[in-house]
Design brief:
Length: 346
């Protein structure tokens, strides 16, 4: 049994980790870390866990936890993991960080977009960006995994085959993305109140969303070019789900079959990426509660542009599911262990 500790187990991403890992046959949760609910029964906070989880919450003492756990998930705000990780901890245990602390390789870029000082720049180089479909081999041997952001996961996987094959002009790329409110976490914020979100849709973070440099970095690595793009996020009145619609000019005319061949080249055999049939657009409801990302595209012959689309559950493939997929790789387990959920509907 893999002994698992979760710091931030009382947040939305942490709660989803608990749900997924409770059904994982090779994992046992030994630490439900919290900051505000220490000594309270976990199932009193999340009643879906009644008679499933008997334990109470502990604190966020990573030093002590690292002596007990084979792997620690930090589902905590930006800056937490970087402020506590040290060499001794990584000698004892593996860490999968769900925050952005180790995703961006350039410290100055991280500090500029996140507005905080990076407390452990020495571990940035070592950290592996945990996008399993691309970095599978590196993840297997990692001590520290930077679990990708929710919007970056969906954006990247929607665009990756065409960026990698050099089929689109990266300078023309525009990404429009929409998220359900669980993406903003469980903390109380006026902007996330029912009356503010219900019956409404709005853009936010326009020209300044902190996921922009992460997407640019990863698409830059895939395409071999420096990427500068427009990325606009929207908040929509649903609990879970991310929908990405991305636009770019094709470098040369391409048929449906040629583009489809590029997607198949990278995603054939990928357990969690589904390339939909011709003309079917991804929808969040068909992936909800699952670790799938549904992708598809449409060539607009009139404008010479291609529209790339993706749908994903932000809490599963966008956070906890992908983190467990990374854990499976790090411990030599089948990649889909504990993740074989069929999407919910309705
Ligand atoms: N929500 C999502 O869809 C996604 C989230 N993420 C990332 O996962 C991380 C957690 O996000 P999310 O679950 O949404 O956030 P929440 O606000 O829902 O949960 C945050 C968790 O961290 C704990 N916490 C808060 N402040 C501190 C602190 N200073 N020190 C230690 N623990 C603290 C909270 O404890 P307590 O409850 O006890 O206060 C809670 O358990 C973030 O880095 C986020 O960016 C990544 C991808 C998607
Ligand atoms: C709806 C909503 O507010 N979404 C969040 C998603 C951020 C998130 O989850 O953070 P990481 O993926 O970087 O860890 C946002 O836009 O900031």
């Amino acid at each position: 049994m893999i002994k698992v500790g979760i710091i931030g187990a009382t947040g939305y991403a942490g709660g989803e980790l608990v749900r997924i890992l409770s059904g994982h046959k090779d994992a046992e949760i030994v630490w439900y870390g919290s900051r505000s609910y220490i000594d309270e029964k976990y199932a009193d906070i999340y009643r879906n866990m009644f008679e499933i989880v008997e334990d109470s919450c502990l604190d966020d003492n990573m030093e002590e936890l690292s002596k007990k756990a084979d792997v620690i998930f930090t589902a905590t705000p930006q800056g937490f993991c970087a402020s506590v990780v040290n060499e001794g901890m990584l000698d004892n245990t593996k860490i999968i960080d769900l925050s952005a602390d180790f995703r961006i390789k350039d410290v100055a870029t991280y500090e500029k977009w996140y507005g905080i000082e990076h407390k452990s720049p020495r571990f940035i180089e070592e950290a592996v960006y945990g996008l399993c479909e691309v970095n599978r081999e590196a993840v297997r041997n990692a001590r520290l995994v930077a679990n990708p952001g929710c919007y970056p996961t969906c954006s990247f996987l929607s665009i990756y085959p065409l960026a990698k094959e050099g089929m689109i002009d990266m300078n023309t790329l525009i990404i429009d993305a929409k998220s359900g409110t669980s993406g903003a976490g469980r903390g109380a914020k006026v902007g996330n109140l029912y009356c503010e979100v219900n019956e409404n849709i709005k853009a936010y973070g326009v020209t300044g969303h902190r996921h922009t440099p992460e997407i640019e970095e990863q698409l830059g690595l895939a395409s071999g070019e420096q990427v500068l793009l427009n990325f606009t996020t929207h908040l929509v009145p649903m609990n879970r789900g991310i929908l990405v619609t991305a636009y770019a000019s094709l470098k040369q005319k391409a048929t449906y079959e040629e583009v489809r061949a590029a997607y198949d080249k990278y995603y054939d055999g990928e357990r969690f990426v589904r390339v939909l049939e011709k003309d079917i657009c991804p929808e969040t409801r068909w992936v909800e509660g699952s670790n799938y990302v549904d992708v598809n595209f449409k060539v607009d012959e009139r404008t010479g542009r291609i529209i790339m689309m993706g749908a994903m559950d932000n809490l599963v493939k966008g956070a906890a599911g992908q983190a467990v997929q990374n854990m499976n790789l790090m411990f030599g387990l089948p990649e889909d262990e504990g993740l074989a959920f069929v999407p919910l509907f309705p």
